[in-house]
Amino acid sequence: MRLAVQFGKFTDPGTPYMYHCHLLRHEDSGMTGQFVIVEPGTENQVPRTIPLHHHT
Question: Which of 16, 37, 47, 50 is least surrounded by Cβ atoms within 10 Å, i.e. has the fewest?
């Protein structure tokens, strides 16, 4: 599924934002996830998965 929403002019495909539902049973049904903001026309150049960052 794809969704196009305008959030303003700030883009950073390396910094994900999170969305969520406040009903915990919805978490495993796609009501919790992450997204990134990219330049228009670059959607297919950005990975579809967000890499895990481990802090030491």
Answer: 47
